[in-house]
């Protein structure tokens, strides 16, 4: 089997073994065209995902993990990374929220949807692609939807310029603190890892540019509507 998909403005021909991948990527499938990359995973690569995930997952599910890994590593050569963060679009700009598992980043973006309604669109609930792009004398970062988006399945095949990034933590009182280089260790932990010197150099360069060009906040939030209002005010006041 073979399908053609567009991820992060690049065309991938994916030679899949199981039909599940086609349905999984259905919103990103395009007509057959000249691909930028051809992706195919072996049975060994599929089984290797068992080392990283619970062993009771099906082979079709493990295939989408293996394909995702290969796409992610291909895009690294295109100045594009996978970042573990829930990302919304609001008034034409993207805002990303990351946190340790169980902190409530999905709950937080749902509060945005509740408070701001149709103005909020969830680009990706868990693992968007983020591309660095130089435009004139400035560097910007573009966020792309992907079907790899967490158990809630929230994603849209769209893209938007990233205007703010938040590292969430639970707090009884809501607060927003502007961060800079102190966010680097946290950001490095959110990016797809690979033990390759060239890739590590790229990753460090990417994060260095990120902290210099994106507004980053340490955000303390409760699970009430006013957390979304506080975050909105902090993120949008300079945008």
Q: What portion of residues belong to β-strands?
A: 25-35%
Unreliable sequence segments: none
Specify the overall morphology: globular
Number of domains: 2
How many strands in all? Answer: 12
CATH architecture of the largest domain: Alpha-Beta Complex
Largest sheet: 9 strands, mixed
Number of helices: 7
Please state the average pLDDT score: 92
Q: What is the CATH T-level topology of the largest domain?
A: Phosphoenolpyruvate Carboxykinase, domain 3
Query: Helical percent range?
Result: 25-40%
Cα separation of the termini: 45 Å
List the helices and strands and how they pair.
Elements: E1 3-7, E2 10-14, H1 20-24, E3 37-39, H2 43-48, H3 59-75, E4 80-82, E5 86-90, E6 93-98, H4 105-116, E7 120-124, E8 129-135, E9 138-144, E10 159-170, E11 175-179, H5 184-188, H6 197-213, E12 216-221, H7 225-236
Parallel strand pairs: 2-3, 6-10, 10-12
Antiparallel strand pairs: 1-2, 4-8, 5-6, 5-7, 8-9, 9-10, 11-12
Note down, in words, how this protein is organized.
With 239 residues, this protein is α+β, with helices and mostly antiparallel strands. It folds into two domains: 3-78, no CATH class; 80-236, Phosphoenolpyruvate Carboxykinase, domain 3 (Alpha-Beta Complex). 31% of the residues lie in helices and 29% in strands. The chain is built from seven helices and twelve strands. The protein has helices spanning 20-24, 43-48, 59-75, 105-116, 184-188, 197-213, 225-236, and strands at residues 3-7, 10-14, 37-39, 80-82, 86-90, 93-98, 120-124, 129-135, 138-144, 159-170, 175-179, 216-221. Strands 4, 5, 6, 7, 8, 9, 10, 11 and 12 form a nine-stranded mixed beta sheet that branches. Strand 5 (86-90) and strand 6 (93-98) form a beta hairpin. Helix 4 (105-116) crosses helix 7 (225-236). The N and C termini lie far apart (45 Å). 35% of the residues are buried. The model has no long low-confidence stretch (mean pLDDT 92).
